[in-house]
Design a protein that fits this description.
- The complex is a heterodimer of chains A (about 375) and B (about 240).
- With about 375 residues, chain A is an alpha/beta fold.
- Chain A is about 45% helix and about 15% strand.
- In chain A, the strands form two sheets. Chain A has an eight-stranded parallel β-barrel, surrounded by seven helices. Chain A has a two-stranded antiparallel sheet with strand order 6-7.
- In chain A, strand 2, helix 3 (about 90-100) and strand 3 form a beta-alpha-beta unit.
- Chain B is of the alpha/beta class and about 240 residues long.
- Chain B has a single domain (about 10-240), classed as Rossmann fold (3-Layer(aba) Sandwich).
- Helix content of chain B is about 40%, strand content about 15%.
- The two termini of chain B are about 30 Å apart.
- The model of chain B is unreliable at about 1-5 (pLDDT under 50).
- Classes of the chains: A alpha/beta (about 375), B alpha/beta (about 240).
- The interface of A and B includes residues 145, 156 and 244 of A.
- Chain B: Keywords: Oxidoreductase.
- Chain B: This is NAD(P)-binding domain-containing protein.
- Chain B: InterPro entries: NAD(P)-bd_dom_sf (IPR036291), P5C_Rdtase_cat_N (IPR028939), STEAP_metalloreductase (IPR051267).
- Chain B: Pfam families: F420_oxidored.
């Protein structure tokens, strides 16, 4: 479905229908590349954190640069914490939509459990209209839980809320009148939801999964594409999850869709510059989260080990491209998204990373994979 | 260990390992136990059919059963389910067995529970209280599941990491042998109550290090702010009791 859009055309808006488009076959050089951010609050030149409003404007500008430099997808993730400015992804995406032509605009993720599927659908359908069909929603449970008390949901229903709301959301993709009943949202009787989109089968929709095998199977059961959050450890550890997704889809009578992965990183002109800019700010973010979850502070040794063998993509364009190519090949995924912000990384460093990702890293990875593909066939 | 004289593998570890919980941690532990040559039984929260595909891909060779069947048929059982589901465990079926508690109180999964979140919470002792006939050992809880998955090494390997265990001596001996078979050095640290040194917010939580540095982290617990708070709260509880 949506992941194959850019293969058909690099310039026309995406218009593939979910569930019907061909999935991008691994190793065919038709990978999708995305950038993701949660709207971390950057530091200005003097090291002071800028305002939430300024942080949001910075993300908007980065979306514009991503569009100009050839990034396929720009995705923003919903959080409800002081350290992240984005709580309303589709409002920001609408702003980016008005200033861009080509880049697909996604959430990564929309915390469906604590939202109303009908409203989520309407808001994204609106972004889809503004952007000429470039909107995409990645639904997930999120790795934070602040939205539950904020919107009056009980954590005791964590699993059930997502299951039920996903069930409704998937029915909305038909864009036909819906009759539905659940426990956590008023029932719908022959209800129509507007606006409808210009896609044949509704909004391009993915499910974001953090590592729960049950969530992988659920995604396969709905026949939706899968986005794996690979935040720590050796990425190849997720290969069985890709296999599980494909086997589950086949056994459950669904066509396996695209599989993507997203991970943290930063690109600078040199490895040294990237490491120097990224470590301290990534540590600020991780230690802040760790202090709430009981993890010890991140050590430099553990960080460097993640950069070397794990889930972090930090370095020069070539270093990062080589690592992306290696893991994309090993996992057989169709999409790679880089989370280019973590903690108070400076605006300048972020902007450089966005530019280098689009202008250098993506072409290099495509070239590396095309070469290895050619070699494999020779 | 259990008095049922089950078939044993090396070092007295029973041949048949049960794992209750088929999520991230349970499937990793199942793979490690299979890799060590054990027969593995595993359960999720309901009908085994719900996890059979997951198990066939993520831990091929393990048998998916109900929790009651795993508790009954396995000779040693590892708990890898959300701590808040403790009350769903069949206590009678686990009586007489070594039960390894790999769980942590995780408010984001288990819901806010002031009792479990407080400094006086010793969660493996709560597990023992719920399973009075079992010999509960705390182990595997302090290491991240991806480290468990990736970093097992043969005995004597220079990069071999350690896993700390707390519990009664005989049961710890059996659990230690299993830890060693799975590719980690076993570091027994004392009775079950000492498990508070391995819980979230302790300096050993999340540790993926060799035995020496792990021992230092655990011994230094009382000198950390959290350690002082926890040990004081536990001492106060004892005085009050």
């Amino acid at each position: 479905m949506s992941t194959s859009d850019q293969r058909q055309s690099q310039t026309e808006p995406a218009a593939a229908a979910p569930g019907t488009g061909p999935t991008t076959a691994p190793g065919t050089g038709t990978l999708t590349f995305g950038l993701n951010t949660f709207g971390d609050i950057p530091a200005d030149a003097s090291g002071e954190l800028i305002s939430h409003a300024a942080a949001l404007r910075a993300v908007l500008e980065e979306g514009v640069i991503a569009d100009q430099t050839g990034v396929d997808v720009f995705a923003v993730g919903e959080h409800h914490r002081e350290d992240f400015a984005i709580s309303s992804p589709e409002t920001l995406l609408a702003g980016i939509a008005a200033r861009t032509e080509r880049v697909r605009l996604a959430s990564a993720v929309t915390v469906l459990s604590s939202d109303d599927p009908v409203r989520v659908y309407q808001r994204f359908a609106t972004v889809d209209a503004i952007s000429n069909g470039r909107a995409e929603v990645i639904l997930g449970r999120g790795s934070f839980t602040e939205s539950f008390p904020l919107f009056g949901y009980d954590m005791a229903h964590y699993e059930e809320l997502f299951e039920e709301k996903l069930d409704l959301f998937v029915r909305l993709l038909d864009e036909e009148p819906v009759t539905w009943k659940g426990r956590h949202r008023p029932a719908l009787t022959n209800a129509s939801v507007f606006p409808t989109t210009e896609h044949e089968h509704g909004l391009p929709t993915w499910i974001g999964v953090g590592g729960s095998p049950q969530s992988v199977v659920r995604t396969a059961r709905y026949g939706l594409p899968l986005m794996l959050a690979i935040i720590g450890g050796e990425p190849t550890r997720f290969a069985p999850y890709v296999d599980l997704y494909k086997r589950a889809a086949t056994e459950l009578g669904q066509q396996p869709q695209a599989v993507g992965m997203h991970s943290h990183g930063l690109i600078a002109e040199t490895d040294e510059a990237a490491l120097a800019q990224h470590f301290a700010t990534y540590k600020t973010m991780m230690d802040r989260i760790g202090s709430q979850r009981g993890w010890p502070p991140l050590t430099k040794e553990a960080y460097l080990s993640e950069v070397r063998d794990g889930a972090l993509y930090v370095g020069s364009p070539r270093t990062v491209a080589e690592k992306i190519a290696r893991n994309v090949r090993a996992l057989g995924v169709d999409r790679f998204d880089l989370i280019h912000t973590a903690g108070p990384i400076s605006l300048e460093a972020r902007r450089t990373a966005v530019e280098l990702y689009g202008t250098q890293v993506i072409p290099m990875v495509r070239e590396m994979l095309a070469e290895s593909d050619g070699t494999a066939r020779a | 260990m259990s008095g049922q004289a089950p078939a044993t593998g090396s070092a007295g570890v029973p041949a048949r390992i049960g794992i209750i919980g088929a999520g991230k941690v349970g499937t990793v532990l199942a793979r490690l136990a299979l890799g060590a040559g054990h027969e593995v039984l595993i359960s999720g929260s309901g009908d085994p059919a719900k996890i059979s595909l997951i198990i066939s891909v993520l831990a091929p060779g393990a048998r998916a059963l109900t929790t009651a069947e795993v508790a009954r048929e396995a000779d040693l059982v590892i708990l890898a389910l959300p701590l808040s589901r403790l009350r769903t465990l069949p206590a009678e079926d686990l009586a007489g067995k070594v039960v390894i508690d790999a769980m942590n109180y995780w408010w984001e999964t288990d819901g806010e529970d002031p009792q479990l979140a407080g400094p006086a919470a010793s969660t493996s002792e709560l597990v023992q209280a719920h399973l009075p006939g079992a010999q509960v050992v705390k182990a595997f809880n302090h290491m991240g599941y991806h480290d468990l998955d990736e970093k097992g090494r043969p005995a004597g390997h220079p990069e071999r990491l350690a896993i700390a265990l707390a519990g009664p001596a005989g049961a710890v001996e059996v659990a230690s042998a299993l830890v060693e078979e799975m590719g980690f050095d076993a570091l027994p640290i004392g009775e079950l109550r000492e498990g508070v040194r391995l819980q979230p917010f302790s300096s050993a939580f999340g540790a993926a290090t060799a035995a020496g540095p792990l021992r230092e982290l655990i011994e230094g617990f009382g000198e950390t702010e959290r350690g002082r708070e926890v040990l004081a709260a536990l001492a106060e509880g004892e005085t009050g009791a």
